[in-house]
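Input (Valine dehydrogenase):
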Amino acid sequence: MTDVHASPEASAPADDPSAGGFVRTLFHSDQGGHEQVVLSQDRTTGLKAVIALHSTALGPALGGTRFHAYADAPDPEEAALRDALALSRGMSYKNALAGLDHGGGKAVIIGDPETLKTEALLRAYGRFVASLGGRYVTACDVGTYVQDMDVVAEECRWTTGRSPGNGGAGDSSVLTAYGVFQGMRAAAQRLWGAPTLHGRTVGVSGVGKVGHHLVEHLLQDGARVLVTDVRAASVRRVLDAHPEVTAVPDTGTLIRTAGLDLYAPCALGGALNDETVPALTARAVCGAANNQLAHPGVEKDLAERGILYAPDYVVNSGGVIQVADELRGFDFARAKAKAAKIFDTALAIFERAEADGIPPAAAADRLAEQRIGR
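Output:
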């Protein structure tokens, strides 16, 4: 990793003979106000992981564990660190606007989960999370699943997103999709005067854990749905279940589709960038992916084109609402009722944006920062 330095306290990392690795606190030039950034390496299992704690002002940091190889990056470890920093900041804002008493954190395990993931590695990762003493509560994210959290929980009690058989809430993508749908309803209310996608054309890019649930909500609401995914099997699963859905070859084709009313990026981040925004035909963007804006300024480009943007960390907070509820003893009806309020939060953000003359992303940031500041 470049531009990363151990803190003075951690200049001589203490080896843990039982884990075969080390843990140290890091600083980074792009840290952006993070409280703590920690690296763990376990030589026995091959674990390399980063945990970034952005804020614990509202309570213990809560955020998922991403397991990703960053194979296309020149420096995968640097890319993982930057991802953890950006995602953990987003979690602080997400948890604040979801009304949760949690700060923001995120973990990244570096590597291909298809080849590297083992029970021993997940247990080593659990010990890493436990070493933070409850300042960070982990859950599922891209590349990790409920069964993985069950293994992590064997070593760490600050684990959520577990299976019902192990006292957890199960798959958090169910309420994530439900919350995104509520954000879509709010966008429809704002643009077309009614909280429904009935008769509208919606393009969903990424129909994996969250996207396929979102498609079902849209179809039940009477929308026409187009889908694309880099994984053919994911598209096939949707088409087998819902023959009325139309598949398109790639995201570029999807965003250029004539008559598209709403675009839903539901894969990895950076979907809204200098190439995609000018090509968008949709009137609104509302999706499940984290960090959809590739860089600062994209939100202004969307606003200048008259495209309503529902901030990602607002509308995709249904999953974190679910896993946070699990810490209290999970009640699905209670969690779903809280996720339904994403509709009201999104509408309030659209109204604040118009009143202040700023993009919705900036309005959401202001509201989140106010709660964290208080």
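The two ends are 35 Å apart (CA to CA).
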